[in-house]
Amino acid sequence: TLVGRAMARHAGPRLPLIVKNLVPVLSSVFDSQRITTTAFFAELLSSNVVNDLILLETMMDNMTGRQKDPCMLVRMLALRGLGNMASGSPEKVRKHGAKLLASMVNGMDDKDDPHNLVALEAMSSLSKLLDHVEERDIQSMLLHIAIRIRPFFDSEQPDLRQSSIALFGNLSRFSEGHCEVFFEQILNGLVTLLLHLQDPKPEVVRACKFALRMCGPSMGCEGLCDMFLNHLREDRSLHYGEFINNVCKHLMQSYPEMLNRLISTNLFYFKSSWVDIRAAAPMFIG
Predict the structure, then answer these.
(1) pLDDT tens, position by position, 200-245
(2) Hey, which CATH number is domain 1-133, 3.10.20.740, 2.40.400.10, 1.25.10.10, 3.30.420.40?
(3) 235 CB neighbour count, 10 Å cutoff
(4) What CA–CA distance (Å, rounded) separates 196 from 284?
(5) CA distance 28 to 2
(6) pTM score, two decimals?
(7) N- to C-terminal Cα distance for the chain?
(8) Residue 268 to residues 39, 155, 189: CA-CA distances in angstroms?
Protein backbone atom coordinates (compact mmCIF):
# COMPACT_ATOMS: atom_id res chain seq x y z
CA THR A 1 0.00 0.00 0.00
CA LEU A 2 2.86 2.41 0.76
CA VAL A 3 4.46 1.67 -2.62
CA GLY A 4 1.10 2.15 -4.36
CA ARG A 5 0.54 5.49 -2.60
CA ALA A 6 4.03 6.74 -3.49
CA MET A 7 3.78 5.67 -7.12
CA ALA A 8 0.36 7.27 -7.56
CA ARG A 9 1.85 10.52 -6.32
CA HIS A 10 5.25 10.51 -8.02
CA ALA A 11 5.34 7.99 -10.89
CA GLY A 12 1.96 8.15 -12.62
CA PRO A 13 3.22 7.74 -16.23
CA ARG A 14 4.93 4.44 -15.32
CA LEU A 15 1.77 2.90 -13.89
CA PRO A 16 -0.02 1.62 -17.05
CA LEU A 17 2.77 -0.84 -17.88
CA ILE A 18 3.12 -1.94 -14.25
CA VAL A 19 -0.64 -2.50 -13.95
CA LYS A 20 -0.64 -4.44 -17.22
CA ASN A 21 2.11 -6.73 -15.91
CA LEU A 22 0.41 -7.21 -12.55
CA VAL A 23 -3.10 -8.07 -13.78
CA PRO A 24 -2.19 -11.75 -14.59
CA VAL A 25 -0.73 -12.10 -11.06
CA LEU A 26 -4.27 -11.67 -9.66
CA SER A 27 -4.84 -15.23 -10.88
CA SER A 28 -1.63 -16.59 -9.34
CA VAL A 29 -1.82 -19.88 -7.45
CA PHE A 30 0.09 -18.23 -4.58
CA ASP A 31 -2.03 -16.39 -2.01
CA SER A 32 0.85 -14.06 -1.15
CA GLN A 33 1.12 -12.82 -4.74
CA ARG A 34 -2.62 -12.19 -5.06
CA ILE A 35 -2.63 -10.40 -1.68
CA THR A 36 0.30 -8.16 -2.64
CA THR A 37 -1.15 -7.24 -6.03
CA THR A 38 -4.64 -6.58 -4.61
CA ALA A 39 -3.18 -4.37 -1.87
CA PHE A 40 -1.21 -2.40 -4.49
CA PHE A 41 -4.26 -1.95 -6.75
CA ALA A 42 -6.51 -1.06 -3.80
CA GLU A 43 -4.20 1.78 -2.83
CA LEU A 44 -3.92 3.08 -6.41
CA LEU A 45 -7.71 3.38 -6.51
CA SER A 46 -7.59 6.02 -3.76
CA SER A 47 -5.84 8.36 -6.21
CA ASN A 48 -7.37 10.14 -9.20
CA VAL A 49 -4.27 9.24 -11.23
CA VAL A 50 -5.86 5.92 -12.30
CA ASN A 51 -8.73 7.90 -13.78
CA ASP A 52 -6.36 10.23 -15.64
CA LEU A 53 -4.50 7.23 -17.07
CA ILE A 54 -7.73 5.46 -18.12
CA LEU A 55 -6.95 2.56 -15.79
CA LEU A 56 -9.95 2.89 -13.48
CA GLU A 57 -12.46 0.57 -15.19
CA THR A 58 -9.83 -2.17 -15.65
CA MET A 59 -8.82 -2.01 -12.00
CA MET A 60 -12.38 -1.79 -10.74
CA ASP A 61 -13.35 -4.88 -12.75
CA ASN A 62 -10.32 -6.73 -11.37
CA MET A 63 -11.23 -5.81 -7.79
CA THR A 64 -14.83 -6.92 -8.37
CA GLY A 65 -13.49 -10.18 -9.85
CA ARG A 66 -11.60 -10.92 -6.61
CA GLN A 67 -14.85 -11.15 -4.60
CA LYS A 68 -14.88 -14.95 -4.94
CA ASP A 69 -11.16 -15.36 -4.18
CA PRO A 70 -10.50 -18.33 -1.83
CA CYS A 71 -8.23 -16.11 0.30
CA MET A 72 -10.14 -13.97 2.81
CA LEU A 73 -7.47 -11.24 2.86
CA VAL A 74 -7.73 -10.81 -0.93
CA ARG A 75 -11.53 -10.44 -0.67
CA MET A 76 -11.11 -7.87 2.09
CA LEU A 77 -8.49 -5.82 0.20
CA ALA A 78 -10.61 -5.90 -2.98
CA LEU A 79 -13.50 -4.29 -1.07
CA ARG A 80 -11.10 -1.72 0.36
CA GLY A 81 -10.02 -0.84 -3.19
CA LEU A 82 -13.61 -0.39 -4.34
CA GLY A 83 -14.30 1.79 -1.27
CA ASN A 84 -11.18 3.86 -2.01
CA MET A 85 -12.85 5.01 -5.23
CA ALA A 86 -14.85 7.40 -3.03
CA SER A 87 -11.70 9.50 -2.54
CA GLY A 88 -9.96 8.71 -5.86
CA SER A 89 -12.80 8.95 -8.40
CA PRO A 90 -16.07 10.06 -6.73
CA GLU A 91 -17.71 10.87 -10.08
CA LYS A 92 -17.17 7.23 -11.19
CA VAL A 93 -18.81 6.00 -7.98
CA ARG A 94 -21.97 7.74 -9.17
CA LYS A 95 -21.70 6.00 -12.55
CA HIS A 96 -21.01 2.51 -11.16
CA GLY A 97 -23.06 2.90 -7.95
CA ALA A 98 -25.27 -0.18 -8.32
CA LYS A 99 -22.29 -2.45 -9.06
CA LEU A 100 -20.25 -1.10 -6.11
CA LEU A 101 -23.17 -1.39 -3.69
CA ALA A 102 -23.78 -4.99 -4.79
CA SER A 103 -20.11 -5.77 -4.03
CA MET A 104 -20.44 -4.30 -0.52
CA VAL A 105 -23.63 -6.25 0.20
CA ASN A 106 -21.94 -9.46 -1.02
CA GLY A 107 -19.02 -8.68 1.31
CA MET A 108 -21.38 -8.37 4.29
CA ASP A 109 -22.92 -11.71 3.34
CA ASP A 110 -19.50 -13.44 3.04
CA LYS A 111 -20.02 -16.95 4.40
CA ASP A 112 -16.33 -17.82 4.90
CA ASP A 113 -15.41 -14.96 7.22
CA PRO A 114 -15.06 -16.29 10.79
CA HIS A 115 -13.70 -13.02 12.24
CA ASN A 116 -15.95 -10.76 10.12
CA LEU A 117 -12.97 -8.93 8.59
CA VAL A 118 -14.59 -8.89 5.13
CA ALA A 119 -17.89 -7.65 6.61
CA LEU A 120 -16.02 -4.93 8.53
CA GLU A 121 -14.29 -3.73 5.36
CA ALA A 122 -17.61 -3.83 3.48
CA MET A 123 -19.31 -1.68 6.13
CA SER A 124 -16.56 0.94 6.37
CA SER A 125 -16.19 1.09 2.55
CA LEU A 126 -19.95 1.41 2.11
CA SER A 127 -20.02 4.36 4.54
CA LYS A 128 -17.41 6.08 2.32
CA LEU A 129 -19.32 5.36 -0.90
CA LEU A 130 -22.73 6.56 0.35
CA ASP A 131 -21.79 10.22 -0.12
CA HIS A 132 -21.44 9.65 -3.85
CA VAL A 133 -24.04 7.05 -4.92
CA GLU A 134 -27.38 7.87 -6.52
CA GLU A 135 -30.31 7.62 -4.13
CA ARG A 136 -32.17 5.22 -6.44
CA ASP A 137 -29.24 2.77 -6.30
CA ILE A 138 -29.26 2.55 -2.50
CA GLN A 139 -33.06 2.53 -2.03
CA SER A 140 -33.52 -1.02 -3.32
CA MET A 141 -30.87 -2.37 -0.92
CA LEU A 142 -31.64 -0.20 2.10
CA LEU A 143 -33.72 -2.70 4.05
CA HIS A 144 -31.41 -5.66 3.34
CA ILE A 145 -28.35 -3.73 4.53
CA ALA A 146 -30.10 -2.43 7.67
CA ILE A 147 -31.20 -5.94 8.67
CA ARG A 148 -27.79 -7.44 7.82
CA ILE A 149 -25.75 -5.01 9.97
CA ARG A 150 -28.07 -5.04 12.99
CA PRO A 151 -26.43 -8.08 14.74
CA PHE A 152 -23.04 -6.32 14.66
CA PHE A 153 -24.32 -3.59 17.07
CA ASP A 154 -23.62 -6.00 19.94
CA SER A 155 -20.44 -7.60 18.58
CA GLU A 156 -17.63 -8.33 21.03
CA GLN A 157 -15.30 -6.56 18.55
CA PRO A 158 -15.50 -2.78 19.10
CA ASP A 159 -14.56 -1.94 15.51
CA LEU A 160 -17.53 -3.99 14.26
CA ARG A 161 -19.85 -2.22 16.70
CA GLN A 162 -18.51 1.18 15.67
CA SER A 163 -18.63 0.54 11.89
CA SER A 164 -22.10 -1.02 11.84
CA ILE A 165 -23.65 1.70 14.02
CA ALA A 166 -22.02 4.51 12.00
CA LEU A 167 -23.23 2.87 8.77
CA PHE A 168 -26.77 2.65 10.18
CA GLY A 169 -26.66 6.39 10.85
CA ASN A 170 -25.45 7.04 7.30
CA LEU A 171 -28.21 4.84 5.85
CA SER A 172 -30.93 6.81 7.65
CA ARG A 173 -30.28 9.71 5.25
CA PHE A 174 -31.86 7.61 2.50
CA SER A 175 -34.95 6.59 4.47
CA GLU A 176 -37.32 9.22 3.04
CA GLY A 177 -39.84 7.60 0.76
CA HIS A 178 -39.16 4.31 2.56
CA CYS A 179 -39.91 5.95 5.87
CA GLU A 180 -42.22 3.32 7.34
CA VAL A 181 -39.96 0.43 6.41
CA PHE A 182 -36.83 2.11 7.75
CA PHE A 183 -38.72 3.51 10.76
CA GLU A 184 -39.34 -0.09 11.79
CA GLN A 185 -35.58 -0.73 11.61
CA ILE A 186 -34.92 2.35 13.76
CA LEU A 187 -37.40 1.08 16.37
CA ASN A 188 -35.75 -2.36 16.30
CA GLY A 189 -32.33 -0.82 16.96
CA LEU A 190 -33.35 2.06 19.23
CA VAL A 191 -32.86 0.36 22.62
CA THR A 192 -29.48 -0.99 21.53
CA LEU A 193 -28.29 2.44 20.35
CA LEU A 194 -29.48 4.13 23.54
CA LEU A 195 -27.84 1.50 25.78
CA HIS A 196 -24.55 1.61 23.86
CA LEU A 197 -24.27 5.29 24.78
CA GLN A 198 -22.81 3.58 27.88
CA ASP A 199 -20.44 1.44 25.80
CA PRO A 200 -16.93 0.99 27.29
CA LYS A 201 -15.33 2.14 24.01
CA PRO A 202 -15.47 5.93 23.28
CA GLU A 203 -15.49 5.37 19.49
CA VAL A 204 -18.66 3.25 19.82
CA VAL A 205 -20.30 5.94 21.96
CA ARG A 206 -19.47 8.53 19.28
CA ALA A 207 -20.99 6.28 16.60
CA CYS A 208 -24.19 5.88 18.69
CA LYS A 209 -24.49 9.64 19.16
CA PHE A 210 -24.07 10.14 15.41
CA ALA A 211 -26.59 7.40 14.50
CA LEU A 212 -29.24 8.72 16.93
CA ARG A 213 -28.80 12.29 15.66
CA MET A 214 -29.21 11.03 12.09
CA CYS A 215 -32.26 8.86 12.92
CA GLY A 216 -34.04 11.56 14.94
CA PRO A 217 -35.76 13.32 12.01
CA SER A 218 -37.23 9.99 10.77
CA MET A 219 -38.90 9.25 14.11
CA GLY A 220 -41.76 11.71 13.80
CA CYS A 221 -41.32 13.06 17.33
CA GLU A 222 -39.99 16.61 17.49
CA GLY A 223 -39.13 16.46 21.21
CA LEU A 224 -37.04 13.31 20.73
CA CYS A 225 -35.31 14.70 17.64
CA ASP A 226 -34.40 17.91 19.56
CA MET A 227 -33.07 15.88 22.48
CA PHE A 228 -30.82 13.82 20.20
CA LEU A 229 -29.52 16.93 18.43
CA ASN A 230 -28.89 18.92 21.62
CA HIS A 231 -27.66 16.28 24.05
CA LEU A 232 -25.78 13.93 21.73
CA ARG A 233 -23.27 16.35 20.27
CA GLU A 234 -19.81 14.78 20.00
CA ASP A 235 -18.14 17.38 22.20
CA ARG A 236 -20.79 17.26 24.93
CA SER A 237 -20.69 14.93 27.94
CA LEU A 238 -23.95 13.17 28.74
CA HIS A 239 -25.77 12.84 32.07
CA TYR A 240 -27.13 9.45 31.13
CA GLY A 241 -29.76 8.93 33.86
CA GLU A 242 -31.45 12.27 33.26
CA PHE A 243 -31.20 11.85 29.48
CA ILE A 244 -32.77 8.37 29.39
CA ASN A 245 -35.53 9.51 31.77
CA ASN A 246 -36.54 12.30 29.38
CA VAL A 247 -36.17 10.05 26.31
CA CYS A 248 -38.57 7.53 27.90
CA LYS A 249 -41.16 10.27 28.52
CA HIS A 250 -41.10 11.21 24.83
CA LEU A 251 -41.22 7.54 23.77
CA MET A 252 -44.28 6.82 25.91
CA GLN A 253 -46.09 9.97 24.79
CA SER A 254 -45.42 9.34 21.10
CA TYR A 255 -45.38 5.52 20.88
CA PRO A 256 -47.28 4.03 23.86
CA GLU A 257 -47.81 0.81 21.86
CA MET A 258 -44.04 0.22 21.98
CA LEU A 259 -43.93 -0.39 25.74
CA ASN A 260 -43.77 -4.20 25.56
CA ARG A 261 -41.13 -4.15 22.84
CA LEU A 262 -38.94 -1.66 24.74
CA ILE A 263 -39.13 -3.70 27.94
CA SER A 264 -38.45 -7.08 26.30
CA THR A 265 -35.43 -5.71 24.41
CA ASN A 266 -34.01 -4.19 27.59
CA LEU A 267 -34.46 -7.49 29.47
CA PHE A 268 -32.08 -9.11 26.97
CA TYR A 269 -29.32 -6.72 28.18
CA PHE A 270 -29.67 -7.73 31.85
CA LYS A 271 -27.11 -10.42 30.95
CA SER A 272 -24.80 -8.11 28.98
CA SER A 273 -21.06 -8.67 29.51
CA TRP A 274 -20.58 -4.86 29.74
CA VAL A 275 -21.33 -3.70 33.27
CA ASP A 276 -22.45 -0.15 32.37
CA ILE A 277 -24.88 -1.49 29.77
CA ARG A 278 -26.11 -4.09 32.26
CA ALA A 279 -26.83 -1.19 34.65
CA ALA A 280 -28.42 1.02 31.99
CA ALA A 281 -31.03 -1.58 30.95
CA PRO A 282 -32.91 -1.75 34.31
CA MET A 283 -32.66 2.05 34.57
CA PHE A 284 -34.32 2.26 31.15
CA ILE A 285 -37.12 -0.12 32.23
CA GLY A 286 -37.59 1.85 35.47
Answers:
(1) 999 999 999 999 999 999 888 899 999 999 999 988 899 999 999 9
(2) 1.25.10.10
(3) 4
(4) 12
(5) 22
(6) 0.91
(7) 52
(8) 41, 14, 13
